[in-house]
Design goal:
The chain has one helix and seven strands; from the N terminus they run E-E-E-E-E-E-E-H. The longest helix has 12 residues.
Length: 116
């Protein structure tokens, strides 16, 4: 469909939209099976920089993918966002937070690289 990018030198984003068949936890219940739907997909990354309480510059980055009805209404069905610490927040329809998960494998790989 389309894509857009922007940056102001400190903050940036890259967003694209497409139509795809996605298998996902559309009901927001991690105990039920994922289902497949043809949806409008909004995906991308966003980064921003800020000063923490100690006055140190910090940059956070999130990748995201959100799913909408495959029509012109853009009703939000589900989605997820993953931060730089590999914490993934899953969202239900209309964007309420359903649950979050952490990818421990990526965390352990980074930890091992730091201690080598």
């Amino acid at each position: 469909m389309t894509a857009t990018e922007w940056s102001d030198g400190t903050n940036s984003a890259s967003i694209s939209w497409s139509t795809a068949s996605k298998t996902f936890d559309f009901d927001g219940d991690k105990d039920t099976a994922d289902t497949t739907q043809t949806v409008l997909v909004e995906s991308g990354t966003s980064s921003w920089t800020y000063l923490d309480d100690a006055g140190q510059s910090q940059t956070e980055t999130r990748t995201f993918e959100h799913y909408f009805d495959n029509d012109t209404n853009w009703n939000h069905l589900a989605g997820f966002e993953t931060d730089q610490d590999d914490v993934t927040v899953n969202y239900g329809a209309g964007l309420p937070k359903a649950y979050q998960t952490k990818c421990w494998i990526n965390f352990l790989h980074r930890l091992l690289r730091v201690t080598e």
